[in-house]
From TrEMBL:
Residues 426-697 form the GCVT N-terminal domain. Residues 6-367 form the FAD dependent oxidoreductase domain. Belongs to the GcvT family. Keywords: Oxidoreductase. InterPro entries: FAD-dep_OxRdtase, FAD/NAD-bd_sf, FAO_M, GcvT/YgfZ_C, GcvT_C, GCVT_N, TrmE/GcvT-like. This is FAD-dependent oxidoreductase. The keyword Oxidoreductase applies. Residues 717-796 form the Aminomethyltransferase C-terminal domain.
């Protein structure tokens, strides 16, 4: 057995083998895989082997498309069969809301190059004759759907990796992982110790146990899952004898997926009375076993399936496969460098290994070899969960995700499991004021405030919801009087030390402000991609506060620590510092009445002030685009600060506002949002953030050469705003933009401007077409809506109120 390697991949399922192959594909040949038993032991060997591209996140869908197309390449490289069956698949819709979701997905696929289509019940009956289309109103057909041989595919990955120089060691159990002072690892096995520069945890069912060896908690949990294979079905046998294959059918109403298996059918269920497995840890001696059959928990699912697919009722049960596989709380994989741990990488919780395994392997290999991925990996980045997450939170969220696997995914839906969990000192006060709660990064955040007599629940919808009127009231308050909301939705960092300014100059592309001022700046990757959208506040020559998206804390801290200089300390104070934003034409009046300090702050000023009894940091800036202030204090003082601001605010018409109003207000000024307009998929020049890059500063900031190259060559596309002639549904994200009967761009976000009473979209179009007044069409829920490119903000056009 090898005793040294550049990368030790722990786990020999399809994901571990994919990671190993992709590392060799990108040029790292000194890599090895360690498996406690045989390849495919765990979830891989009993998987149903289906694959599909449908995913609510466009980058995940694209990676699933990559995975599916990779299989033929593997067969060509290795000469091995993956047992591919590209039979296509149709997802059924039995109500208008589900068809809306499928239409929204079809729209996304247009600019992704995926050839899906909406089909009628009559077409479904021809495509998938085993289906009873009674009650079905339409569906989404995907020609890429299919299934394969799980074992053959995994061994094809393994052979391709070996051909690239990789080593695979089976029947080798990892016992310990111990980090050396230089950041490398000793992987202790029952065959000896392997010294590795990097570890990849692809442990699957044992990922929790493998992580615990390094003191890492991975938020995932195994769930029991059951599918059935039938004896011969005459209709299927007839199709086969005629030289054909029956496509997959996903029936969300019945929580089932169905495909051909030999001359019979295979059907699996995501049943409501589901069960988490191995709550206290996965047994090390589990591997090629199955769980006992349990027809009781799928009884209702089977009954529904017999109605949807009558042929099932005529066939006997050939076999039952009941085994565990792992989920993260949101159902997406956990991939990437583990925050706070050097040279430790995650490739865990890949519940759809044969749809996603290739894309996961590619992204992780690019991350390791090239330093960053070719696309935004936020949806599967292990850093999307911070150190606040616990097994007690993970398990109920995993159960919820399993139960919602085939449910309609609404853009405004707030799932209730394991909530409330994390709250601020303002929770009970806001709740008493009628808050309708959302959550972000585990924290409860008011989406809007219901009036007395109004329902305290936002009804999930693809169209304008029952939050519409409440949001309009809150927007009106901000634009005509003064609104207040909490600023706990910002990630906050303190940077101190003699080298703080120089470090910020290097890690941020924009200008580092002078004392008493703040600046806005993008943070770039080495390839010039956007990895942060920050405010820098200079509190002292060696004391700075950074603010950015609250949900990106672990992501940003990982980057900061990877690039930290001597003489600099950085602390994440997101949950130690809180406060309020006050915004609107009466905001200055409120501030002046609650402090004895001068309130002559100019736009982008920052100053320490005493408000009531509380020492605060006050910034003249506002995401609402209005006259506004961000007021920060320590957490124990927050309630006192609230009492002061709220008490005085009542004489000025102050009311609270939530995130729904915030996202409407920012549209008036075309302000972008993190992971919508600003993400690693885009560059500063494309999004307009290049206006904040300080090209004149004599610093080789990260991403400078890439940003300069794009500045000189020009960006190919431009982020623009559009006024949309919408009906009862607004842009959410990724709707295609049509021009001259072709898709030329896509939307990044949108919504309704209650101030202007217009539907607004933000999105990319080619630079040469981005002219004021350009007429386009934006496809919303399958309907093309006329839209016009606009360049003049809908509020405070000259910036007099915000800046004056």
């Amino acid at each position: 057995m090898k005793t040294t390697t550049r990368v030790a991949v722990i786990g020999g399922g399809v994901v571990g083998c994919s990671v190993l192959y992709h590392l060799t594909k990108l040029g790292w040949s000194d890599v090895m895989l360690i498996e406690r038993s045989e390849l495919t032991s765990g979830s891989t060997w009993h998987a149903a082997g289906g694959f599909h591209t449908l995913n609510g996140d466009t980058n995940m869908a694209a990676l699933q498309g990559y995975t599916i197309k990779l299989y033929k390449e593997l067969e060509e490289i290795t000469g091995m069969s993956c047992g591919l069956h590209h039979v296509g698949g149709v997802t059924l819709a039995d109500n208008k809301e589900r068809l809306d979701m499928l239409k929204a997905e079809r729209a996304k696929h247009r600019f992704m190059g995926l050839e899906t289509e909406i089909v009628s019940p009559e077409e479904i009956k021809k495509i998938a004759p085993v289906t009873n289309v009674g009650g079905i109103i339409g569906g989404l057909y995907d020609p890429l759907d299919g299934h394969l041989d799980p074992s053959g595919t995994t061994h094809a990955y393994a052979k391709a990796a070996r051909m690239g120089g990789a080593t695979i060691e089976t029947h080798c159990k990892v016992i310990e992982t111990n980090q050396r002072p230089d950041g490398s690892w000793d992987v202790v096995t029952d065959k000896g110790t392997i010294h590795a520069e990097h570890i990849v945890n692809a442990g699957g069912l044992w990922a929790r146990e493998v992580g615990a060896m390094a003191g890492i908690y991975f938020p995932l949990h195994p769930m029991e899952h059951q599918y059935i294979v039938t004896d011969e079905v005459p209709m299927i046998a007839e199709i086969i004898d005629g030289g054909g294959e029956h496509p997959h059918v996903m029936d969300p109403a019945g929580e089932s997926y169905l495909r051909q298996e030999g001359r019979g059918l295979c059907i699996g269920f995501y049943e409501q009375p589901c069960r988490p497995w191995a709550v206290d840890g996965t047994p090390w001696d589990f591997g090629h076993e199955l769980l006992p059959d349990d027809f009781d928990k799928i009884e209702e699912s089977i009954e529904f399936a017999y109605k949807r697919f009558p042929a099932l009722a005529e066939a006997g049960v050939k076999s039952v496969i009941h085994g565990p596989f792992t989920f993260a709380p949101d159902g997406n994989p956990l991939v990437g460098p583990v925050p706070g741990v050097r040279n430790y990488w995650s490739a865990c919780a890949v519940m759809a290994g044969f749809s996603q395994g290739g894309g996961v392997g590619l992204m992780l290999a690019q991350w390791m070899v090239e330093g960053e991925c070719e696309r935004d990996t936020a949806a599967m980045d292990v850093a999307r969960y911070g150190n606040w997450i616990t097994p007690g939170y993970t398990r109920p969220k995993v159960v919820e995700n399993y139960q919602k696997r085939f449910s309609i995914a609404y853009p405004n839906e707030e799932l209730p499991a394991a909530r409330p969990f994390r709250t601020t000192p303002m929770y009970d006060i806001f709740d008493g004021l009628g808050a309708v709660w959302g959550h972000y990064y585990g924290m409860e955040i008011p989406n809007y405030f219901a009036a007395e007599g109004e329902e305290r629940y936002e009804i999930p919808s693809f169209r304008r919801s029952n939050a519409f009127e409440a949001t309009a009231r809150e927007v009106k308050t901000v634009r005509e009087a003064v609104g207040i909301n909490e600023i706990h939705n910002f990630g906050k960092y303190r940077v101190k030390g003699a080298g703080a300014r120089a470090w910020l100059d290097r890690i941020m592309a924009g200008r580092v402000p002078k004392q008493g001022r703040l600046s806005l700046t993008p943070m770039l990757s080495p390839k010039g991609r956007l990895i942060g959208d920050f405010t820098i506040s200079c509190l002292g020559e060696e004391d700075f506060q950074l603010t950015a998206s609250y949900g990106a804390q672990a992501y940003h801290m990982r980057w900061f620590l990877q690039n930290l200089d001597e003489g600099v300390t950085i602390e994440n104070v997101s949950d130690q510092v809180n406060g309020f934003q006050i915004a609107g034409p009466r905001a200055k009046d409120v501030l002046a009445a609650v402090t004895r300090d001068a309130v002559d702050l100019k736009f982008l000023d920052v100053r320490r002030m005493t408000i009531g009894k509380v020492d605060c940091v006050v910034q003249r800036v506002s995401y609402t685009g209005d006259l506004g202030y961000e007021i920060y204090c320590d957490l124990p003082s927050q309630r006192s600060l609230w009492d002061t601001l709220w008490g005085e605010g009542q004489t000025h018409g102050m009311k609270p506002f939530g995130m729904r109003a915030m996202m409407s207000l920012r549209l008036d000024k075309f302000f972008g949002s993190w992971l919508s307009e600003f993400s690693p998929d885009y560059t500063a020049a494309e999004t307009g953030l290049d206006r904040f890059i300080s090209f004149e500063k004599p610093v080789d900031f990260i991403g400078r050469s890439a940003a300069e190259a794009e500045r000189d060559a020009g960006a190919a596309r431009k982020l623009c705003a559009f006024e949309v002639e919408a009906e009862d549904a607004d842009v959410v994200a990724y709707e295609p933009i049509w021009l001259d009967s072709a898709v030329v761009g896509f939307c990044t976000s949108g919504g309704y401007s209650h101030h202007a009473q217009k539907s607004i979209a933000l999105g990319f179009v080619p630079v040469e077409r981005a002219t004021d007044g350009l007429q386009v069409e934006i496809e919303i829920l399958g309907q093309k809506q006329a839209a016009r490119l606009i360049t003049e903000p809908l509020f405070d056009t000259d910036g007099a109120r915000m800046r004056g």
